[in-house]
Recover the amino acids of this structure.
């Protein structure tokens, strides 16, 4: 039997506001346990929440960018459950009237283009975090994260593969970063994904029994967990067993999912309207203002770079994948560096250094001005490309002054034909056989002689000058 995997996503995104959703505590990541919290976000009796206006703006901007309809009159609801990381024993969320609904995101994979429908986008507060310490056999609660603002983006069950899920999440991350509403740092929990997955016979109209895999925070983990869980469910069904609706966790070390608890339904949370926060009524003028603030997104930049700079589609796709890279590109070009040269450096050396150091583009201290200067030095003949790469690698981490580094280490390119000629005579004297081979028509011998001159000059000679001088002297010999 042929089986079909059906997947829906619930993606939690921490918003990049300076303070929490209902109080003035900082949202800064880290800090000593229980130092970023107050009576409001820890649920002390008698406290009242006050909505952070920036949270509403960020949620609406995200909804507009994801092609959602905006609910003109929305409200918050209480989601009741008991867990040690939730001091109030309820979470303020949105169930009945979410801020945005009925959106769509277009993705592309090797299988082609596809539209993923978004069921809703709602605002809510994050819970705290339980820290399990095996050395002392204790679990402790850190409430710093309580009240950090979230948007939860819920899709329809439109995915059929791990590739589609990853493509959607990459598109979602790029969109939110371009908007500036979240840094989407998965390693810090700013973007977390719950995967709802079921399998069914191919072509069957009814959905199978689903499981939910919680809080996956890397593309690799998401892809591997989907592949494992689909295989596990298929094997159970083919063995005549049934799939149990439950919440499961992904164990990275064991490369498997494990049952955590039975899956809750909405009625289990006993939702009711939040009595301490009045409904929100959004005017057309308010929405028009936020629409006017929407930035140029990745697709628009790709089209502009191809039209304005003549860059290939592949280059523009790579550059615009991260907003910080696209901004870096634009600033370097604005400083006079040729667009294609900047593109080549970004896709090669810059992205290589970021990967090697485990950095994202937004964390890079190397400046567009430094890259523009390096490119200029190569164009002016003061550095050859290989030396420029070495300078780049040396100054990348601390963004040192390029000219000062070149001068300090004596790296400026040798373009003096007289000096090159003297070195060439020394190379000829040491390699008479190579001269004979060249005169016999063996072009490889010329390449060898060029290499010897370059080595004598420590790689700092202008290759064009070296080749010209060698040809001239070999003709004279």
């Amino acid at each position: 039997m042929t089986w079909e995997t059906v997947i829906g996503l619930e993606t939690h995104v921490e918003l990049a506001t300076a303070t929490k959703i209902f109080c003035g505590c900082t949202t800064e990541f880290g800090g000593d346990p229980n130092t970023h919290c107050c009576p409001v976000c820890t649920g002390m009796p008698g406290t009242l929440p006050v909505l952070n206006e920036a949270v509403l703006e960020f949620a609406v901007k995200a909804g507009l960018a994801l092609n959602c309809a905006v609910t003109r009159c929305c409200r918050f609801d209480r989601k009741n459950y008991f867990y040690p990381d939730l001091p109030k024993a309820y979470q303020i969320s949105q169930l009945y009237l979410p801020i945005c609904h009925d959106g769509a995101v277009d993705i592309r994979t090797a299988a082609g283009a596809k539209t993923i429908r978004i069921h809703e986008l709602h605002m809510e507060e994050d819970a705290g975090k339980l820290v399990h310490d095996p050395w002392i056999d204790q679990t402790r609660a850190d409430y710093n994260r309580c009240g950090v603002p979230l948007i939860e983006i819920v899709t329809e069950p439109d995915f059929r593969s791990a590739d589609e899920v990853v493509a959607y999440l990459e598109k979602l991350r790029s969109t939110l970063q371009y908007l500036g509403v979240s840094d989407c740092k998965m390693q810090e929990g700013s973007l977390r994904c719950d995967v709802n997955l079921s399998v069914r016979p191919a072509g069957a109209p009814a959905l199978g029994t689903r499981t939910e895999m919680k809080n996956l925070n890397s593309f690799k983990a998401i892809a591997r967990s989907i592949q494992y869980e689909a295989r596990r469910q298929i094997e159970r069904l083919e063995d005549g067993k049934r799939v149990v609706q439950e919440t499961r966790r992904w164990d990275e070390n064991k490369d498997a999912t494990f049952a955590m608890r039975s899956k809750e339904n909405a009625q289990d949370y006993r939702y009711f309207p939040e009595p301490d926060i009045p409904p929100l009524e959004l005017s057309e003028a308010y929405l028009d203002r936020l629409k006017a603030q929407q930035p140029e997104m990745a697709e628009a930049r790709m089209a502009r770079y191809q039209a304005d700079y003549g860059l290939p589609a592949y280059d523009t796709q790579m550059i615009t994948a991260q907003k910080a890279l696209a901004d870096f590109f634009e600033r370097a070009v604005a400083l006079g560096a040729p667009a294609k040269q900047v593109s080549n450096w970004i896709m090669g050396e810059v992205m290589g250094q970021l990967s090697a150091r485990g950095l994202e583009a937004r964390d890079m201290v190397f400046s567009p001005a430094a890259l523009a200067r390096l490119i200029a030095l190569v164009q002016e003949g003061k550095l050859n490309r290989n030396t420029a790469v070495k300078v780049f690698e040396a100054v990348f981490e601390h963004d040192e002054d390029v000219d000062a580094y070149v001068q300090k280490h004596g790296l400026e390119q040798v373009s003096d034909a007289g000096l090159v000629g003297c070195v060439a005579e020394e190379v000829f004297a040491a390699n008479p056989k190579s001269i004979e081979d060249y005169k016999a028509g063996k072009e490889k011998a010329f390449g060898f002689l060029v290499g010897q001159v370059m080595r004598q000059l420590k790689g700092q000679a202008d290759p064009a000058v070296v080749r010209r001088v060698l040809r001239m002297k070999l003709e004279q010999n």
The first strand starts at residue 3 and ends at 14.
